[in-house]
């Protein structure tokens, strides 16, 4: 019985910690749902600034706007920019395409893939070979592919509950379709849009030519899923029909851009840094509200919520809006380069880059012990319907970041609707639900609070 | 050590049961995401038939369509209708309303609340008293309320993560605002729409006059949230401004309608009945895709998935599409009346009436032991991101149903976006995500499979 008093003290201390955490989470979610700024920030980024492709006027305006907002917030000890040279790819004139079946022309919605070269000025007109995989190119070989347009038409597999798995699996067609097809003398590439839905939006995204010289590159476009189904159906009727497309995209010289950083100095261990961020650049077909305006304003909201609940972090918190995730990843690389140069010690990095949908949990990149530690907070999150803590990738922008004991996490919102909008002309502010966005911000804030308080 | 062999056998038996359940759930979700009909059924209900207010042509068409679909499916042993007399409320001409501030007229979007009486033909023009609660009427009293239009303007509380709590709390204004206001000589009632969003859609829904005779009833309308904010703001500037509204809704005599029922006879205990359903009627401002076309087609899909995976239920399964949930509940009452008359034994009843959004779990209405039993299936659902099993209400249509050991459950989809569409002009098919709808159907099927197999 002698040890009981100690046990009681210890238990009641734990009880206090838990209940104090409960209270803090309650305050965090309350602030986010009643007093947040993230939705109006995103409104401005999306509806006033618009798209933010690296090197564009929009990207530069977004840098200035978010920096000014962070400065005006009174939340940060320091707001600053990190210079980073970024690639500048320009779409040029709106693309056009049609299926030519005998004398019948049927227009279909396409867009150039990011990084693609242009077609010749008069466009490309050629017969089409439909394939379902990169591997099929080998089987068909040069004899069947030379002089043709290759049409990659493997849909995203609907059977994965986690939509990102389907995206990853079908994504090789977009990422490598052009690079692989040109080896067989193909003239161009059409890729089925990476979305589950049947609609008329072509979805862009980067294609990668590797080290193929510019003069050998062939143009690549995405076709909407309805367009892809139509083309496939018409090819069955007439395998020698032709496809025409024209695009005038081009690459300019790299230009100067910036990561935007707001820093709250830690009260007890300022040398330990916690990063929370999203990427400020977006594709150019819409506002990039989900990808990744949402992640940027949620990251800014983390600091805003801390201010509103009067929480002073022990460790230094950095809100980082990375530039150029979509077509280069230069912002993430630059952040790491400078962190290393300055001998910084990062203990935790969180990224939100999966849309502003209702949050479900986090994927954790660290040791098993890190995952166990973070999962031990699970019961605190359950009142907010956050329940999924799994091992997995943190995020593209924080991928280059290294530090001896660094743990990374990615916010995992519900994934079902993400690819309805991803890289397409409908990734707009009206596709954002204010509460879902705010719940994501609160969930990010809650985990950062817990890690800042209890360590990792 | 002697007991070990038994333990091993027992464990491996459990292991087998668990793994066979795992396989069945995998098959269920797979079928739902790759081979379901619910989305196309809902497309027809929403886009070809349209609204299905009780007593309307649409409601009758929906009865015939779903009956024909169930018959054609080859899934059921029996498909039949249950006759039920339903109230017929008709909106009449489109409502109109404006704020009259001196000579300035500002039009605002309103709609009559369901069950409301009409205004006089020329409309009502009167001063407005803004209140935040029913209780405030008492405080103000007859002196301040007679001859006035009462404007109920308490917003839904954004701080609840569970949106239905906010709906329940703010809902008394819509449900009882007219009945309470007429006691003080008010001429009419305006109710702020029950939604979190700021937009221009008025949200209808039933108002209840209790036993007040028709000649004493006063007209009640919903105003869009933007309209409510504008009116409130203008009232602050000019408390004696006037509000005008006109509506020509009316109640006709009850008409004959139907519950639609498809039945699969149980293979071993056919006398035990499991019900799964939604309500076929909807409000009249849109298609009622979320409320509750979704619940109907998901319930039909349960039977379709069982057919596709070759599962023959032990107990009798009834898919029930209830009529008249929105403004009477007559279908649910009739179902119970006949169940009782026929001495039927219902063991489980599930309702889907919270929108076709991504499913999160179930609310369970039963004993603690029932909740524990159903919660014991939780680990089987986790791969599908279903995690919330809580005590709570099953659903309005299954509320009247009684049987000695009956357990009820309501599908609980994510609630954040439900009130963006609920009872409003934007509750349309384009607000439905195919995968979210299908995941809901799979989740319902999975729980019914588990209860049918393991008992409750």
TrEMBL record, chains A, B:
The keyword Signal applies. Keywords: Carboxypeptidase, Endoplasmic reticulum, Glycoprotein, Golgi apparatus, Hydrolase, Lysosome, Metal-binding, Metalloprotease, Protease, Secreted, Signal, Zinc, Zymogen. One of its GO terms (biological process) is proteolysis. The keyword Magnesium does not apply. Residues 259-444 form the Peptidase M28 domain. It comes from the Bacteria. It is found in: Endoplasmic reticulum; Golgi apparatus; Lysosome; Secreted. This is Carboxypeptidase Q. It holds the Pfam family Peptidase_M28. Homodimer. The monomeric form is inactive while the homodimer is active. SUPFAM superfamilies: Zn-dependent exopeptidases. It comes from Flavobacterium amnicola. One of its GO terms (molecular function) is metallodipeptidase activity. Gene3D superfamilies: 3.50.30.30, Zn peptidases (3.40.630.10). GO terms for cellular component: extracellular region; lysosome. InterPro entries: CPQ, Peptidase_M28.
